[in-house]
Amino acid sequence: MISTSYQAIGEICLIKQKDKKVAQAILDQYKRFKSVYYQGKISGQLRTPNVTWLAGERNTLAKVRENHCDFIVDISKVMFSKGNQAEKRRIVSQIKGSEEVLDMFAGIGYFTIPISKLTDASVTAIELNNDSVDLLKHNIKLNKVEGQVNVIEGDSKVETLKLGKKFDRILMGYFTSHKRSNASKLQSDLCSFPGTYEFLPVALKAAKKGAIIHFHELAADSEEIISKITSIASDLKVLNARKVKKYGAQTHHWVIDIQV
């Protein structure tokens, strides 16, 4: 009866079966869980979760610890992907000294928190989702890194250019299968591809000479992404292509490290 596939977010268990009997069986067998929720489809540009309470406490807040960092997550408002832990550790290991880092899609601090807590880098964290911004600010205080992070709420295509500064490293941890938004007409003609690609021209404007950009996208293979990247800016050097995880039958989440 018990679901063999579930995701643990702190003391909350997320399952793909909308079955209260299964949910209660999970609580009976796994004492570490206090709540079980059904996880439906993710929707919209902001990738909003759809969850339904099934058993246990009616609480959508969870505390998660990973990579020596603590996060408060609200499963009804934001996603928390535990499949990217190795990628977060990899980025932290690459940072040298007091780099200036731009996180263009900060979320609740998936990369911002470990970078600011485990290195000497300073981070400018931009996030469009108001719920994520609130949790990001909370997580910054929770990890005591207020002095290293500057949080900006808004569209990174617009806010990045407003900063008027250059960065040593830029994180572009975002992808979407939806049509691109019209949130910023300012850059609407700069890129013909949707998803992360449409933000790349702005990232290049904010990159120092020699800066590293960590570019995330979905594709069957890395060459598809590299081809589109180089069609946008031919003078970029591809340093590395890494498969983060499987995302569909023939699709993978890739991160491409490129140097300006």
Give an overview of the whole structure.
By secondary structure, the protein is α/β, with parallel strands linked by helices. The chain folds into 2 domains: 6-59, Met-10+ protein-like domains (GMP Synthetase, Chain A, domain 3, 2-Layer Sandwich), CATH 3.30.300; 83-259, Vaccinia Virus protein VP39 (Rossmann fold, 3-Layer(aba) Sandwich). Helix content is 25%, strand content 32%. The protein contains 7 helices and 13 strands. It has helices spanning 20-29, 85-94, 112-118, 130-142, 156-163, 200-205, 222-232; strands spanning 6-9, 12-15, 35-39, 51-56, 61-66, 69-74, 100-103, 122-127, 149-153, 167-172, 207-219, 237-246, 252-259. The strands form 3 sheets. It has a 7-stranded mixed β-sheet, sandwiched between helices. The chain has a 4-stranded mixed β-sheet with strand order 1-2-3-4. It has a two-stranded antiparallel ribbon with strand order 5-6. It is globular, with a radius of gyration of 19 Å. Residues 178-190 have low confidence and may be disordered.
Assembly level: single chain
SS elements, strand count: 13
Q: Strand order of the main beta sheet, please?
A: 9-8-7-10-11-13-12
Average predicted local confidence, pLDDT: 89
Number of domains: 2
